[in-house]
């Protein structure tokens, strides 16, 4: 029988609002004994949030396929031969109908995604009407439209947008292995425009892309050192799609995913940490551990852009089992 060595002593815990995280410090967090790491994250989570409540967001693809970027994980890229076809933009009425259904199911935030490098002015004009109409339903609004040009974030803000999502995807040192059509600095520049416009930031990344634990530490450190830290941090577990360069990536062990959630919670104690893509492949026990480790938001609905997600009834059942309530 394995026993804990008598000489084991709990290392000094970091301050719950530490700034300027180094990659080494986050890597050290990820390397803590599993139960110790989860316990610390749960403690910090309770300092800033009610652990019985989670935020529910629904994500809808308003423009699917045909993206000129070559992100190695994405089935919507023109560079990859995948089953996802280029589709026209949804109409305002279609988006509003989806938002009404999301609200009826209990979602508090409605997120709109489009497969663009960045929105053209004509495309953005159409999305502004969508934002206004969804906001009028009493939902929080979020958009992810790619790189923004000067003035576009302000237009979205004026239309009633609450959050703009623009993920960093991975650590700076790993980025060139995943994406070649835009630079890391391009992403940071868009995040700067979003902040300048007064929008809240939704920014996270993807794990399970053949990265090392240190790469995961690099991603968390980069996110935690954004000033201010993102209000919402989606953590995606790669969904492998045939035809993408990462279709055969090695699957990340579930314990490493839970460690990533815990480290994100410790490094960003006031952010909502969201279980995002890949949750359909997680069993209930793994999701429960993630909630214990500080995750307090999920994407809620049967589909995430083009990949599957647990259906609403399954999530409602799990929330009931865990005594979790929607915000």
Could you please describe the fold and organization of this structure?
The chain is α/β, with parallel strands linked by helices. It has a single domain, classed as Aldolase class I (TIM Barrel), CATH 3.20.20.70. The protein has 11 helices and 12 strands. The strands form 2 sheets. Strands 1, 2, 3, 4, 5, 6, 7, 8, 9 and 12 form a 10-stranded parallel sheet that branches. Strand 7 (232-237), helix 9 (254-267) and strand 8 (272-275) form a beta-alpha-beta unit. The longest helix has 16 residues, at 121-136.
Walk me through the topology.
Elements: H1 23-30, H2 34-48, E1 53-63, H3 92-105, E2 109-114, H4 121-136, E3 140-144, H5 152-159, E4 163-165, H6 175-178, H7 184-196, E5 200-202, E6 205-207, H8 213-224, E7 232-237, H9 254-267, E8 272-275, H10 284-292, E9 297-299, E10 303-304, E11 307-308, H11 312-321, E12 325-326
Parallel strand pairs: 1-2, 1-9, 1-12, 2-3, 3-4, 4-5, 6-7, 7-8, 8-9
Antiparallel strand pairs: 10-11
């Amino acid at each position: 029988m394995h026993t804990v060595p008598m000489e084991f002593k709990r290392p000094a815990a970091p301050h719950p609002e530490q700034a300027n995280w180094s990659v080494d410090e986050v890597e050290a967090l990820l390397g803590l004994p599993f139960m110790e790491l989860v316990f610390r994250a749960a403690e910090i989570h309770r300092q800033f949030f009610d652990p019985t409540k989670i935020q529910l967001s629904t994500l809808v693809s308003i423009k699917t396929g045909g993206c000129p970027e070559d992100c190695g994980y994405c089935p919507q890229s023109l560079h990859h031969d995948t089953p996802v076809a280029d589709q026209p933009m949804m109409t305002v009425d279609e988006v509003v109908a989806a938002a009404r259904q999301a609200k009826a199911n209990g979602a508090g935030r409605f997120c709109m995604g489009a497969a663009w490098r960045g929105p053209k002015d004509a495309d953005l004009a159409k999305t502004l009407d969508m934002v206004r109409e969804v906001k009028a339903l009493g939902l929080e609004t979020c958009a992810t439209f790619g790189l923004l040009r000067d003035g576009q974030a302000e237009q979205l803000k004026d239309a009633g947008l609450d959050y703009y999502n623009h993920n960093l995807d991975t650590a700076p040192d790993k980025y060139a292995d995943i994406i070649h059509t835009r630079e890391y600095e391009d992403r940071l520049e868009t995040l700067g425009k979003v902040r300048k416009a007064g929008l809240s930031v939704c920014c996270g990344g993807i794990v399970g892309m053949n990265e090392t634990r240190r790469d995961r530490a690099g991603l968390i450190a980069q996110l935690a050192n954004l000033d201010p830290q993102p209000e919402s941090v989606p953590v995606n577990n790669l969904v492998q799609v045939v035809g993408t360069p990462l279709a055969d990536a090695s699957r990340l062990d579930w314990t490493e995913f839970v460690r990533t959630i815990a480290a994100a919670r410790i490094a960003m104690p006031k952010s909502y940490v969201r279980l995002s893509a890949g949750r359909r492949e997680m069993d209930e026990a793994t999701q429960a551990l993630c909630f214990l480790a500080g995750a307090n938001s999920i994407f809620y609905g049967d589909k995430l852009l083009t990949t599957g997600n647990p259906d609403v009834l399954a999530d409602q059942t799990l929330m009931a089992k865990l005594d979790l309530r929607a915000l």
